[in-house]
Amino acid sequence: MLVITCPFCGPRDEREFEYCGPAAPPRPEDASVVSDRGWVEYLTSPPNPVGPVEEIWWHKRGCEAWIRLCRDTVTHEILPTREVRK
Amino acid sequence: MKRGNRLPDGGLIDRERQINFTFNGRSFTGLAGDSVASALLANDRMLIGRSFKYHRPRGIMSAGYEEPGALVEFEAGSASGNEIPALLPLREGMRVKSVNCWPSPEFDLGGVNQLLAPLLPAGFYYKTFMRPDWALFEPWVRRAAGLAAVPRAAPEEGAYETRNLNCDILVVGAGAAGLTAASIGAASGLRIVIADMDRQPGGALLGCEAWIEELPGTDWVRKTAAELKAADNVRLLRNTLVWACREQNLLMARQNPERSGERERNWRLRARQLIIATGAVERMMVFPGNDRPGVMLASSVRNYVHRYAVRPGRRALIFTCNDTANEAVPALTNAGIEIAAIVDTRPEPQSVPTSGIRHIHGAAITRTSGRKRVRGALIRHANGRMEQIECDLVALSGGWNPSLQLWSQARQPITYNHRTSMFVPVAKAAAIRCAGAADGCIGLAAALRSGAMAGAAAIKACGCRASAAIPECSPQTRYNAGPWWHDEAPGRAQNAFVDVMNDVTLADIHLALREGYRSIEHVKRYTTAGMGLDQGRTGNVNIVGAIAEATAADMETIGVTTFRSPVAPVSFGSIQGTREGSVLLPYRHTPLTEWNVSRGAVMYEAGARWRRPGYFPQSGESMHQAVNREAGAVRNSVGVYDGSPLGTFAVKGRDAARLLDMLYTNRFSDLPLHQGRYGIMLTDDGLILDDGVSFRLGECEFLMSTSTANAARVYRHVQKFLHLERPDWQVWMTDLTCQWMNATICGPAAREIVAALGTDIDLGRGKFPFMTIREGMVAGLPARISRVSFTGELSFEINVRARDLCQLWERVIDAGKAYGITPIGSETNHVLRVEKGFLSLGHEVDGTTDPYDLGMGWIMSKKKSDFLGKRSVSLRRRRGVPRRELVGLATADPAQVIPEGAPLTPGGRREKSEGVVTASVWSECCGRSVSLALLQDGRARHGETVHIRTPEEVMEARVTGSCAWDPQGTRMRS
Amino acid sequence: MADAAVSRSRSQRYSAFSLLAGAFRQHRGWRPAWREPPLEQCYDIVIVGAGGHGLATAYYLARHHGSKRRIAVLERGWLGGGNVARNTVTIRSNYLRDESIPFYVKSVALYEGLTKELNFNLMHSRRGMIDVINTWPKLREIRRRRMVMDLHGATYRPISVDEIRRRIPLLTGGGPQSRLPILAGMLHPDAAVNRHDAVAWGYARAAGGLGVAIHQNTEVKSLLCDESGAVCGVETSRGRILAGKTALAVSGHTTSLTDTAGLRLPLRSFNLTAFVSEPVRPVLDCIVNCPDLGVYLSQSDKGEFVIGGAPDPGQSFRRDIRQNVFEDTVCALLELFPSFKRLKLLRQWGGHLDMAHDASPIMSPTERPGLYISAGWWGGYKAIPAGGMTFAHLLATGTPHPLMEKFTLDRFPHLDFIIESGTTAAV
To answer: Is B681 exposed, middle or buried, given 0-12, 13-18 or 19+ CB atoms closer than 10 A?
Structure first.
């Protein structure tokens, strides 16, 4: 059970949040102009690092903020979080 | 007291309160403060049960959770699996019995296994029982397994609960070190929690005589604990085993109830700083016959004498390789235990010998004698001379194993210390530290000092000032232990146990090494050493030592196996706490649940935890009959259903239309005011996520609906897209599912009923067409009516505030009486939508289809340059590989309903399928069964005969269009 | 025939007789179970990872595809120490898709003959699995499975709730008044459990007997590429090793290695937890699976209940136990078996594995000539024999085995996913 610091609510229990996948690079503004390979890679092959990974969590049972955080996949250490908009 | 092993005075027991209990059906008496083990020893019961594999007699070997020998279980109704008698506080009326023996531990038929032992070395089962087949042998092997019986009765409800607690410093273990650390912490004002698994604080101090600050050890404990209890900022948890250390200093603990009626608690403790003061466990010594009842750990003998005033034997032989066993001598002598000799493996005396006691140096026990109780031991002197010494108690001290389970679970490093022959922690992490014996500080003075230092350091780490006041006690010499892993035991290694609990011998370790199982993990897995209930606490290091000796490797290189939680077994009930049944999976209800139940509806969960009516059987009706009646009502007159669980969302803001254009494959920005449009939503993978109708309520406001089961997923999908990809768009999505609830009136007579309810909305045919929405008053309630149809009939979905739904519903039923209005359930809804060929999540939309597959290519906008999923759909379809497409099926036998999910195969042969039946129902209005299927290249195959194959039969059907009822849609538009 | 491979080897035969003979010599005559020859600088095929899949691949390569090849298996730690050492030994073939079922049917069949083939008792116990169903959508899916499985020779048959309760008397939860009443059940008689360490050791011993070199404590640090981009070997903690073909069977670590060759794969690594109870007398003679509650269990020959649940949220390279996930699984277990509240947890552990974007396995050549991967095994224990056999085929012939031809990386450029569960692994 992690403690995740919501930028609005402070440190909260992981059970208030929902994991919403790795933080992919931004979706292309217009998907039709990307190369096939680029599109497939964007969709299917997010980074899988042994170490810090950027991911998206949603404070679903809290303030509903969308949070981008950097979690170490080996230690679970969470580097400072921020709201995704920023 | 008869058979008197109880000493006339001393002990932390209440001699005034006798407690009656039974063991293997015989009645015994103990005292308040006793454990089951001490009470049994007081009654001269050393033999407790039989061992796991060889059914050797086993007795009580220790006074704590490291117990490798004795296991008991509760009788019948209160069975709770295997229990360690030393950990069970004695209670009135307790009924315990031996495990793994029949008919009794004294005479056990399974004991025949001892004769077979030469045939049963480690891993013997990998080499045999292969022919003719393992299946013939398995039942016999299984029957022999398992120790105690499985609990068969659930405890009463409310036996468990979960609590959360945050603190600045958590001290695990309330021994000398833990109490000292907590006392220093208490003065700092920080929030301190100190947890100890025992019934009373004190740790090793309960089991030995000591003086701290001029008080007897137990008095110092009592005084310190009282001070801690009095402090507002300290919480002392007794009976609390901290069993796991998870990420970010989350510690899991189980607190046993102290009195009957209390709950067993699961604690989630979150600590800024963790101090592990869990002490150390005395190590077994490995020599032939080291498992015989009467062989005990030296510290445990001392513990029984001091804490329980019980004398486990009359004449003791002490066998040791370190300094601590000597300290036990005075207590044992005072208790009237005659010391036959102290056998020390180290050649030279290391400490001042106790006068009047025979010390033998450089010697070892090479075997014990006796059958169900040790009667003597054979000593090999340094010069090789053998000597038999009579005794009924062998007290072992093979050195100490710091209890590092929590430390190791926290992924902290461990190293081997040669001077003390121990694996000890290497301080590294800032938020976790060890103290006392757990830190390798053996002896009271060292433990007190270490506890004070750890406490002060933790306080400093919390940003407070601390002074490490170290309690005074008698000075001690530096602790030494000679490494001694086993007696050489020529030819008798098969009786020298390295793991008493799992019956693993030195011979087994050597066999594993011989066969190439060299890694400590291989040895452990091949021999099962250390995998028992006691986790090999007393024996694991001896195994490492044996490997080191046999392979000439370094102790540190071999290392210890991974420590896994829990530290000691904990009940599943305590882990669950109060989360059971409806608390675990709460239902969602609409306001109509009571009405539905009172009308005899068959209720069940129908997705997203909503409790909904499946159908409303009238007297004696089967489900089939009820559904036919309900469907007939909708097709011929009128029905009503509660459509509230359907996901409903408000989408508002300047960019609302733009958002819907992005989410759905078709266009919404050109939707006129008060009109609705059906849309399909894809994931960016190009597969259908959901479908539904959205209405435009204003230039910048839409009302969006989703399927019931998917509402939460869609909400997340949209929010994620908005927040991550288009944070600059000015649009907000709000979940209204539980705000607006509806009664949906459907059927040819629906308009008359809405009119009869009384409304200011013009219901005229031209005035309120299909796929539009109106706001106004209905039956005196503020309402929104939308003209959508999931049934294919004329339909009015009357949405009101949730609190008004019951009232509306009653009025609808009243108003519809004249038309025979019929409430319908979700089973009927399913029939109606299959007749219409409408899509359903989990049927046609199974995560593999796109709109083209469903014959809805028209909904894929060609004008929009981008929407979610567009790119992927075009990429996937570019190669023109044939795909499964939605078709209808008309079975050759019109009465035949196909099992849903049945595969279609070419010619009905038993081969790879070419399609799947997604839905099939009996259609009363069509007079035949109506089915939908996804069929390879299906749209090109209309009119063709295809075959459906189930394990039972092969069915024929003709491929048709997917809409069997009113294909033009005139009825729902009427 | 089945034993031919092993009898050719220098391994000692195991039997009741040899055990008896061993007893007379106080078991001093047993020789090492597998070969540990000196490390060479060059092999025809290097398999990275001595887990279940790696060892099985080596065995089938040596057995079916000629003994001339020099084959090495490189292992970072101790052989059999990967996921084969930490799983719930559930062997079954109740899949949904035509692409998947034949492969798992083959794997189950291979497992059944494996004890005799390897001359190593895997204690393979074909005790069947009972799926306990609590919701209508799941019942629909499970019935669909049954009918598709029948096409491919896998058996799955309905079992009444009464019959379930008769066979599993302790399953007293899920009654008509409970929150999730048991609606129906399905029996999968082909399902089995066995002894996981024995599978690794049996394959290692048999492969060693056929000349495969197994090198433990040899960590592969990176892949070696030549100037054309082809993979020509590996850099290890014991030096550089050249290989004609390099095969990765490293579970969660696939991308860590392919990253070193600049190759991106649609894989992410997750942690999956399992736990066992204290040992108790045998009371459960089948595997029980409850997909609606998210828990499955069986009882080992030692008497421990072996229990598994859902993966942790988020990627992970930590063999971990997340308390929230674990508690959910315990709650699910106790909904079905309320008397287990009194039973005790003995041991728990985690293991990491990688999952492809569509949650189906990948067995494939790669863009880099010379590099082959077998990855994305999610519940890959059941797939070890057929996975090894088909990967050996791919390595020997360069073309995918017919059972696995749909499972190559080729499916991704066209987004032709093989979706088992009904949803993508989008999160």
So the answer is: buried
Q: C226 and C241: one domain? A: yes
Q: C19 and B145: CB-CB below 8 Å?
A: no
According to DSSP H, which parts of C210-273 are helical? 254-259
Q: Is C23 in CB contact (< 8 Å) with chain A?
A: no
CB-neighbour burial class of residue B273 (10 A; exposed 0-12, middle 13-18, buried 19+) = buried
In a domain, C258, yes or no: yes
Please give the residue of chain B at the shortest CA–CA distance from A19.
B716
Q: How far apart are CA B618 and CA B595, in angstroms?
A: 15
Q: Position of tokens 């450029």?
A: C413
User: Are B300 and B224 within 8 A, CB to CB?
Assistant: no
Q: Nearest-CA residue of chain A relative to B719?
A: A66
Whether the Cβ atoms of residue C411 and residue C418 lie closer than 8 Å to each other: yes
Query: Of C121, C136, C340, which has the smallest distance from its Cβ to B129's Cβ?
Result: C121
Q: Is residue C318 part of a domain?
A: yes
Instruction: Assess if residue C26 is contained within a domain.
Output: no
Judging contacts by C-beta atoms under 8 Å, the chain A residues touching residue C412 are 40, 44
Q: Tell me the pTM.
A: 0.95
Domain ranges of chain A: 3-24+38-83
Spell out the per-residue pLDDT of chain C, length 427, in tens. Answer: 334 444 444 578 999 999 999 988 889 899 999 988 999 999 999 999 999 999 999 999 999 997 689 999 999 999 999 899 989 999 999 999 999 999 999 999 999 999 999 999 999 999 999 999 999 889 999 999 999 999 999 999 999 999 999 999 999 999 998 999 999 999 999 999 999 999 999 999 999 999 999 999 999 999 999 999 999 999 999 999 999 999 999 999 999 999 999 999 999 999 999 999 999 999 999 999 999 999 999 999 999 999 998 889 899 998 888 999 999 999 999 999 999 999 999 999 999 899 999 999 999 999 999 999 999 998 899 999 999 999 999 999 999 999 999 999 999 999 999 988 643 333 3
**Chain C interface mutation, best of B101, B102, B130, highest count of C Cβ atoms under 10 Å:** B130
Question: What is the DSSP code (8-state) at residue B722?
Answer: I
Give Cβ neighbours of residue C51 (< 8 Å, ≥ 6 apart).
C80, C81, C82, C83, C84, C85, C200, C249, C250, C251
Q: Which amino acid type is present at position B762?
A: D
CATH superfamily, with its number, for domain A3-24+38-83: Folate-binding superfamily (3.30.2270.10)
Q: Which of C6, C20, C27, C292 to mutate to test the interface with B (most CBs of B within 10 A)?
A: C27
**Would you list which residues of chain A are within 8 Å, Cβ to Cβ, of chain C?**
1, 14-15, 18-22, 36-37, 40-41, 43-46, 48, 50, 53, 55, 71, 73-76
CA distances from B944 to B472, B892, C171 (A): 96, 12, 48
Chain B residues 692-731 with CB within 8 Å of chain C? 709
Geometric angle at alpha carbon B575, from B573 and B580, rounded to 5°:
60
Report how far residue B762's alpha carbon sits from residue B747's, in angstroms, rounded to the nearest whole number: 19
Write down the ipTM of this complex: 0.96
Asked if residue C159 is part of any domain, the answer here is yes
Q: How far apart, in Å, do the first and last CA atoms of chain C sit?
A: 48
Q: What is the full DSSP assignment across B877-931?
A: HTT----EEEEEEEESSTTPPPPTTPEE-GGG-SSS-SEEEEEEEEETTTTEEEE
**CB within 8 Å: C20 and B119:** yes
Cβ distance C338 to B79 less than 8 Å, yes or no, reads no
Mark yes or no for CB contact C282/B146 under 8 Å. Answer: yes
B173/chain A closest Cα distance in angstroms: 23
B892 CB-side CA count, 13 A: 9
Of B131, B138, B848, the CB nearest to C125: B138
Domain count, chain C: 2
